[in-house]
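Researcher: Please translate sequence to structure tokens.
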Amino acid sequence: MAEKDSNDDRKSELEAFDDSKTGVKGLVDSGAAKVPRIFIHEQNKLEHKSGSGNCQNFTIPIIDFQDIYRDASARCEIIDKVRKACEKWGFFQVVNHGIPLNILEEIINAVRKFHELDADVKKEFYSRDETRSMIYNTNFDFYQAPAANWRDSLYCVMAPRPPNPEELPAVCRSVMMDYSKEVMKFGLTVFELMSEALGLNSSHLKDLGCAERLYLIGHYYPACPEPELTLGLSKHTDSGFLTVVLQDQMGGLQVLHEDDWVDVEPVSGSLILNVGDMTQLISNDKFKSVYHRVLAKNNGPRISVACFFRTHLEEGNDSRLYGPIEELLSEDSPPIYRETTAKDYVKYIYSKGLDGTSGLQHLKLSK
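Model: Translation complete:
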């Protein structure tokens, strides 16, 4: 009975917070000196006390794309670096990626400006209706996750059907469209390199539809009064094929590598790339989708823009099945996963929320 009362209390607290439509930033603006109970991560308290994380022994790979189309031998070297990064890390940073630096600065500034709009202006976008062109809220899995995360986000499906610009907030409308086009072009290049890194034709992943869909999320992590009690983003893997992340200079992103949390140090002008679950599935575990998280901090805000090459919930009725690529299978390397549609997989992730486990376990074939 006590557990039911506790769950009811939690649900009431979640609903009261959500009904305010002002997000975590609203809490901070109101002068909150304590982290509300719904944001407290018990496991994080334990890890903080034990001194876990913040490993200094590793650095995620940084790959320079400068000569990717100019020099055949340089391209081969880059493909080899991409292969090693995808196999061993699941993460890498890219410099000289070809997206103009002014567009990177503009999208970070635009996301900040949106989240710092007057609360009454932002409220019209606050929603959990995933069929809308663009929404803003606190945590997509607010009601499913064991504990809420200390961040607000705006979300928008940018491809294959871009939104009507008039439906986007004026402060970020133009640059969201421009940045998304640049990321789509860049993504095609990355999927070419990843295809070749797997020993496949350069267009293989593109031909599978991996680069067709783009979902953009602009995250805002306000300063937190008690950062040791919560997280900006819980431990999770990404559900799509590939994620391209632009972060400001605040830091806080960590990748789990060899059982240590490794800081992804900001590199000015760089983009962070990580392999998603769907790529681990179709590569039959050759490329790894790894756990990562974002720490809460007592300074801020931290701004990041994550672009996911993946299907979203309300998009069409694409019934294409994805399973391990036939060319990568052999007697010694049988399929590890059963087939799924990209949409069904995203639905499953949304139903369970960021609970610290990979959704791929759900698709594993029994040995």
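Researcher: Any highlights?
Model: The mean pLDDT is 93.
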